[in-house]
Amino acid sequence: MRAVFDTNIVLSALVFGGGLAWLRGAWAQGAVIPVVCRETAAELLRAIAYPKFKLTPSERELLLAEYLPFAEAARLSQPLPALPLACRDRFDTVFIQLALSAKVDCLVSGDNDLRALCDVAPVPIVSANTLRRRVGL
Description:
The protein is of the alpha/beta class. The protein has one domain (about 1-135): 5'-nuclease (Rossmann fold, 3-Layer(aba) Sandwich). The chain has helices at about 5-15, 20-30, 40-50, 55-65, 95-100, 110-115, 130-135; strands spanning about 1-5, 35, 70-75, 105-110, 125. Strands 3-2-1-4-5 form a 5-stranded parallel beta sheet. Helix 1 (about 5-15) packs across helix 3 (about 40-50). The protein is globular and about 40 Å long. About 35% of the residues are buried.
């Protein structure tokens, strides 16, 4: 299964573990293939460096090494795919556009602005728990 993960899901799995720690194993085993583009990877790099995480550059590098090597790189279609409804947070739009451009199985998000589009989005937007059930982990 190929999926786009929003930045919060990735950070939760990498930095906090907890209920999303299973994603690390899912990526490593190939049960789920994360799909990233230049824009979403840049957002992850920016967010993982937030001072509130108190991660050293080495720690950030180690965490990213548990995600990016398992990810498939894709490009956003040009022109960008049209969306049926604007996302409340314009910075979240790229995740839907990537999901459409890469023709993934789903977009995994816990973000309220993205989840609000579940009924109208042209790609399934699912929670991490729904993904876990779908891949049988």
